[in-house]
């Protein structure tokens, strides 16, 4: 995208579709069904997961920063209840992702060597510590990039303690099973983004995962859904009542137009009958006048 296009997009986002009186450039308004309501609320998965391993392509609905700006201005004056649409959209998306995660877990159970309950518990302890290290390392790097050096160093100290605990957990796990079985890569499915994590993954690999766009994108989507679901039932009921009121208003308007049309039609017919009656009266009057004139001419002739 050129610098000119970037500047135009920024102005659209700030000022909306009418920033230069260019209303003809937009064939739809923000409240058109073809516009993505999740995009207007900054939570469309198509945008959040773009350019990741789970990129789901372009959203079938319209995304436009200018329309989002129009919506934000309009929302300040009137509640459009678009959070209800966004909640239902994210619920469907996350439900589908959770089904895929469960299917991946089942495939692992079928393909990997089955562990006893005791060994599985020890393996899970290693996994959990490894994931904690990866998450903390990703957070420390983020703080360092923001210039928060002291906070970053504090987290690095925590990572060292976690590494010691992980090493002890690995020794316990290794001693509980044959060497040949231990050397096999034991996989685990990430609960957040359904990616596969290995028990032998190093800290760098785990940090890249937990600090990556895919994992953080799913965290954003899940947190947004959790936030929206808090008031979903209340908001859904409020929108239902609002829709009913709007439907009643539309029905009343149609009924009023129908009654008004009937009155106009009766008035038109009445005027037509009146004109027809006056026309017949004038015709009879002209006919009588014509007869009198003809009689008078006949009398003068004789």
Outline the structure in words:
With 302 residues, the protein is an all-alpha fold. The protein has a two-stranded antiparallel ribbon with strand order 1-2. The termini are far apart. A hairpin with a 6-residue loop joins strand 1 and strand 2. Helix 1 runs parallel beside helix 4, helix 5 crosses helix 10 and helix 6 runs antiparallel to helix 7. The protein has 11 helices and 2 strands.
Biggest sheet, open or closed, and with what strands and sense? 2 strands, antiparallel
Secondary-structure element sequence? HHHHHHHHEEHHH
Q: What is the spatial order of strands in the main beta sheet?
A: 1-2
Residues in helices, as a percent range: over 70%
pLDDT under 50 segments (min length 5)? Answer: none
Number of strands: 2
Overall residue-averaged pLDDT value: 81
In whole angstroms, the N-to-C terminal distance is: 107 Å
Organism: Aphis gossypii (Cotton aphid)
Biased composition (Basic and acidic residues): 235-265
GO biological process, one term: mRNA splice site recognition
Region (Disordered): 235-302
